[in-house]
Amino acid sequence: MQEERERLEGLRAQHLVETEWLAEQIAAGNQNLRVVDMRGYVKTQTEHDGYQTADYLGARKEYLEAHIPGAVYLDWTTDIVDTDDLVPAQVAGAERIANILEESGIGDDTLIVAYDAHPASQLATRLWWVLRYYGNTNVRVLNGGWAKWLKEGRPTTAEVPIFPKTTFTPRPQLHWRMTAQEVLENLANPQIDLLDARDEGQYTGRIRRGKYGGHIPGARHLPREAFFTVENTFQSVEAIAETVGECGVDPTKRVVAYCNGGVAATSVLFALSMLGYTDLTNYDGSWNEWGQRDDLPHQQSEGV
Fold first, then answer.
1. Per-residue DSSP letter, 155
2. Nearest to 72 by CA among 29, 28, 114, 135
3. Closest of 290, 267, 285 to residue 208, by C-alpha
4. Is 96 helix (H, G, I), strand (E, B) or coil?
5. What was the pLDDT predicted at 36?
6. How high is the pLDDT of residue 304?
7. What is the pTM of this model?
8. CB neighbours of residue 41 within 10 Å
9. Tens-digit pLDDT profile for residues 58-75
10. DSSP symbol at 205
11. 285 Cβ partners below 8 Å, 6+ apart?
């Protein structure tokens, strides 16, 4: 039991950093560290009939007003997405990702710490997933993010740092990303665990984001919020393992997670990765794509 706990704590340290540690690294002038501010919003509006719209917004203005010292800003709605894709929020291509990161002083050997202000850290974990997809594992998420940093009275600044351009080499790991066609082809595959990371209303179909409501047939509900404390920090490894076990996620299978735009799903993938799950995939198009298409199957819960 102790050995397993130590293993999980070691994995957690490869994913999460605490505010105290980050403050110490900044104070020590760690030149290999790049802190990335990923703050932004998903602003939703729900009509009486349950139809919901969403606006994807960055928060560059807030970054310019105050941020963690030394942090650079990446806009999750423009900097790391393919702005030409008809499906919103799809990951950008390798060349664009490399250019954006290199201009921010993020290279192949840089230690990257991402933070945001979302209660489930989903924009920070989105960057974690993007970097994993492009073959870089040297990335961490700040536990509790911007809110915890402020609550503890830690220093902030409006100064925008300028770092020398460096080299980032994308090495796409295609198993981290799945297309709609691949999801469709694997709906009956017993070796695939399909997880829906959205809230209960969207999963059941009571709330409809898109032409169709409900979920992908066979998907189980595992909302991103299940892994967080009331203080919006990640739960202990034991609590996360218990939640995953109760959901029945099988560590021997390939886990495919989705949400609306492939963002909340990354919080779930991040939590599973902290438990040592390695066969993890994000259906990047998620319900933004699936819920609009007439040629794909949709399932609603009974009574909706």
1. -
2. 114
3. 290
4. helix
5. 98
6. 56
7. 0.97
8. 18
9. 999 999 999 999 999 999
10. T
11. 87, 90, 179, 180, 258, 262
